[in-house]
Specification:
Helix content is 57%, strand content 20%. With 486 residues, it is an alpha+beta fold. Strands 1, 2, 3, 4, 5, 6, 7, 8, 9, 10, 11 and 12 form a 12-stranded antiparallel sheet that branches. The longest helix is centred in the last third of the chain and has 72 residues.
């Protein structure tokens, strides 16, 4: 089975361009990601699924094995015994043998039905040689265009699903790290709230503004207790998240600093031709059109379905006589048949040679079958369905490309928003860092307090957490871009 190499080459080059744009980077932070691909159940399942799908696709690409060379089969036939109406004992044997030349699509059959009259010792035999050669002027299976389109679509889906699976595992790791950072930030905020509330309560008790055991004291003390409960809950959530992270990557989690997180590559550079979703939709259009073309070609094509040539020899003799009476009957036949869905035409010649002479003959037969109206309506509906399916595929392609362009615009907005937020956080960090330096300097000159320094450190820590979360968001955007371009 020959493939349409030009079509496949174009499609595979397009796919390689897209896949090349989403290959996974290598850096220190990606050790978590690499561990997840290797150790997580979803990562291993993704690899296995790709292997299975690829092997199935490769098997489908192979030609169905066909017999080659020459094969031979024979049968002893059936042996039967009977007594005829005259009371004679008759034994019948019909051996046969078939030789098939697969490369030539040629079949030679030899038969020799033989009858023995045991009573009169008469043997009658009618050996026959049949040669059959089949010719086809058109075979829809010879056109593999539809198979090429369908094969390319399957391969594209396999690769897309695999790389999308890789990216999904990476995003799971990044989301897990982001969850741990968020919980750490929550613990920091809660601990600071507890500390501030406890100091404020203690100062008010010392100054006499609040009396221990009073309703106000009880309410403020209960507020501190609630904050401690929140802290315990956050700490428990961290333990759960750490276990989830280990199950995901196979490794323990270590604190991540802002400097350790790689700068995300959020350059869009989306291909104008669209991603594999758009290409798959384009393939669906070609598949629908090809199905319609195949249907029309099948209806319009005429073919010679088979051409057979047969030679038959028949003879019988009676044993036991000095001059046995014998008769013979030689027959030579050749014929051809042509047909399509509406007509059949047969022609042939035959020559019989026997003891009475030579008798040639010829025959021509034909039959035109005009399909009933309901069959014609059925055919028209079939073509109409295929035409509408082709039109629907066109609309789906246009919608896919429109969705692709819309997703690009949405991604551009996300990238712009991320860049603005990152710049704002950089400014905020610089401001908080200067405020911390001022607080430390004021404390060193004894006109600032330790509390002022601690507050400034706390504000700077919050910005550092926000920067880490922002960087992780950038890595998530980077992977969403890869999915968009995939």
């Amino acid at each position: 089975m020959k493939r349409n190499n030009a079509i496949k080459t174009t499609l595979m080059v397009s796919l390689l361009i897209l896949i090349g744009s989403v290959m996974l980077p290598a850096d220190d932070f990606d050790s978590y990601l690499a561990a997840a691909q290797k150790n997580s159940m979803s990562g291993r399942l993704n690899d296995l699924q790709r292997t299975i799908s690829t092997l199935q696709w490769e098997r489908s690409e192979l030609e169905q094995p066909e017999d080659e060379g020459v094969s031979f089969s024979s049968g002893g036939g059936t042996l039967s015994y009977a007594k005829d109406l005259t009371g004679d004992h008759v034994v019948t044997l019909d051996p046969s043998a078939t030789v098939t030349f697969h490369d030539l699509d040629l079949i030679i059959t030899l038969t020799a039905p033989t009858t023995l009259n045991a009573t009169d010792t008469v043997v009658s035999s009618a050996p026959k040689v049949s040669i059959q050669k089949t010719l086809e002027t058109y075979n829809p299976e010879d056109d593999t265009t539809l198979e090429d389109f369908e094969s390319a679509a399957v391969k594209m889906d396999i690769d897309r699903n695999y790389y999308a699976g890789l990216i999904a595992v990476e995003k799971s790791v990044l989301q897990s790290v982001k969850e741990l950072i968020t919980l750490d930030k929550s613990v920091l905020i809660t601990e600071k709230s507890i500390s501030d509330a406890a100091i404020s309560l203690e100062n008010d008790l010392k100054s006499g503004l609040l009396k221990e055991g009073s309703t106000a004291w009880m309410l403020r003390n209960n507020s501190i207790t609630r904050l401690k409960n929140t802290l315990t809950s956050s700490q428990n959530n961290i333990s759960v998240s750490l276990n989830k992270f280990k199950n995901l990557t196979g490794d323990g989690y270590e604190d991540v600093t802002y400097e350790e997180i790689p700068q995300p590559d959020i350059t869009l550079n989306a291909p104008d031709m669209g991603n594999t979703i758009v290409l798959s939709a384009a393939l669906d259009v070609e598949i629908a059109k090809q199905k319609l073309a195949d249907e029309l070609s099948t209806r319009e094509s005429n073919k010679i379905s088979d051409s057979s040539y047969t030679y038959a020899l028949n003879g019988s003799y009676k044993a036991g006589l000095k001059q046995p009476a014998s008769n013979y009957d030689h027959t030579l036949q050749a014929g051809v048949t042509a047909s399509n869905s509406e007509f059949i035409f047969e022609a042939g010649v035959s020559t019989v040679i026997n003891s009475t002479g030579i008798t040639p003959s010829a025959y021509i037969t034909g039959r035109w079958t005009d399909k009933p109206d309901d069959w014609k309506e059925f055919d028209e509906l079939t073509v109409n369905i295929l035409e509408n399916q082709a039109a629907s595929a066109e609309q789906s392609y246009n919608q896919s490309y429109s969705d692709y362009l819309y997703d690009i615009q949405e991604m551009q907005l996300r990238i712009s928003s991320w860049n603005i937020n990152s710049a704002e956080l950089d400014l905020a960090y610089s401001e908080k860092n200067l405020q911390l330096e001022d607080a430390v300097y004021a404390h060193s000159k004894r006109f600032g307090t330790v509390s002022d320094v601690q507050d400034a450190q706390y504000e700077l820590q919050l910005i550092e957490y926000e920067q880490i979360l922002q960087a992780l968001d950038g890595l998530l955007i980077e992977r969403d871009i890869r999915v968009l371009k995939l």
